[in-house]
Amino acid sequence: MKTNFLLALLLSLSITSVGQHNNYQKKLTGQIKKNISFIRSYVYAEHPDYNIDSLCKVTAKKVVNLMAGNNYSSIYDQSLGLKLSAERKDKTAIKIYNFGYDCGGTRRIITHPIIQWKNEYGKIFAYNLSSKINCNFVEIHQLKSQSRNLYLLIGAEAGDGSCYQGIAYVIEIRGDYLIVNHPVFVNRPYLNLCNREFDFDTKTQVLTSFLGHPSVPSPLKYAVEGQGDYSKDKMANIKLTALIGAGYNSEPSIFYLKFNGHQFVKEN
Question: Looking at residues 44-55, what average pLDDT do you find?
């Protein structure tokens, strides 16, 4: 009799727990859908009366909470207002979703990317990549490395009226964790260059960067020295300039970098 009572109690607690979880998920889904709908329709003013950037940060965190541990379909995720911009159909099952708002200036859309992946046991994780960079990533390439699970993300983001940012960003998936500061471009995980296109050859592991349209290359100084904490290392700035400067400032403006299993180096 006592055993039956305990079993019934455990079953009741289990049902209650599942119900609470489902209610939480339903509430979270509703909040995300409402927030993204507002963000997408937001009209930015010179003197805004609403902190849209704060709402984007909060919404990105909610999306991560929803995606972590849940293998929803892409159709479901997109029904929330998220855009699936890139995915990789391998054991990591990387997917990159984003949302954004029109800032009203020459920069236009500010993109907030969220990345989802699986560990070796199939458990699902998510990370707010927009906490590190704003970019509409459209390509995912695996880098050849014996000791690390590295991926190259390629995308672009509007900068201002005369510049869009071509971005190549390397991430490392280490089981449950996403490493976003792996120093593959000297001391930094990414290149962020004005009006540049990136192309990656998976066979040769060569990354090519060239001007996206006929124009004079923007000064390399900002791309090297204007990237936050990474640019505080003056010796690293000198090394990065030496790595890409000759090709960047040549005519035509083009440079080639080869991934050697650890870092991108000059292509011989």
Answer: 83
E strand segments, the chain: 83-87, 95-102, 109-118, 124-128, 136-143, 150-160, 163-174, 177-179, 190-194, 196-201, 206-211, 254-259, 264-266
**Residue 132 forms part of a structural domain:** yes
pTM for the predicted model, two decimal places: 0.88
For the chain, how many structural domains are there in total? Answer: 1
Q: How far apart are CA 168 and CA 156, in angstroms?
A: 9
pLDDT digits (tens, 9 = 90+) for 135-158: 999 999 999 999 899 999 999 998
Token pair belonging to 3: 């055993």
Q: Which domain holds residue 2?
A: 1-137
Residue in this structure with the two tokens 């000059």, named with its chain if needed: 266
pLDDT in tens, 234-251: 999 999 999 999 999 998
Query: Looking at the domain assignment, is residue 143 inside a domain?
Result: no
